[in-house]
Amino acid sequence: MSASSKQLLAALAAGIVFGLGLVVSQMVNPAKIVGFLDVAGKWDPTLLFVMGGALAVTIPGFRLVLKRPHPLFAGGFSVPTKGDLDRRLIAGAAFFGVGWGLAGFCPGPAITALVTLALPVFVFFTAMLAGEVACDRWAGRKS
């Protein structure tokens, strides 16, 4: 089996595990997300356990993995090197947060929720893709 085939299978397996985690944790349920973000109303704190569990696995996991000389199926790690905050990053994070709060979806759970065939999910997904295309075109004009 070639290295690229191994990479694709590993990515598929990771995607399936990630999608199942989103379903089990109810991150694909917009009402659950909005309930968590509604700290001034009927707050639902259960997603704190999802975030805590993710951090409990990710923090030690990254430390262990980055001690390896290279990933299993690649020649080297692709780790961000830029550490400063700029306007584009802050604006992007703000748009992401506002969109997540208003719609109850972010990209991963929205893609996972497409299997429900629910119209609101497809409307969100279409709007998300349109926003990505618009951002790419706008960024292309700026450079």
List keywords for this structure.
0% strand; 143 residues; mainly alpha; 6 helices; globular
Distance between the termini: 41 Å
Q: Major beta sheet, specifics?
A: none
Number of domains: 1
Radius of gyration: 18 Å
Count of helical stretches: 6
Gross geometry: globular
How would you characterize the overall build of this protein?
- The chain has six helices and no strands.
- The chain is mainly alpha-helical and 143 residues long.
- It has one domain (3-142).
- It is globular.
- The model has no long low-confidence stretch (mean pLDDT 88).
Short description:
The chain has helices at residues 3-24, 30-37, 47-65, 87-103, 107-113, 119-142.
How do the helices and strands line up, and which of them pair or pack?
Layout: H1 3-24, H2 30-37, H3 47-65, H4 87-103, H5 107-113, H6 119-142
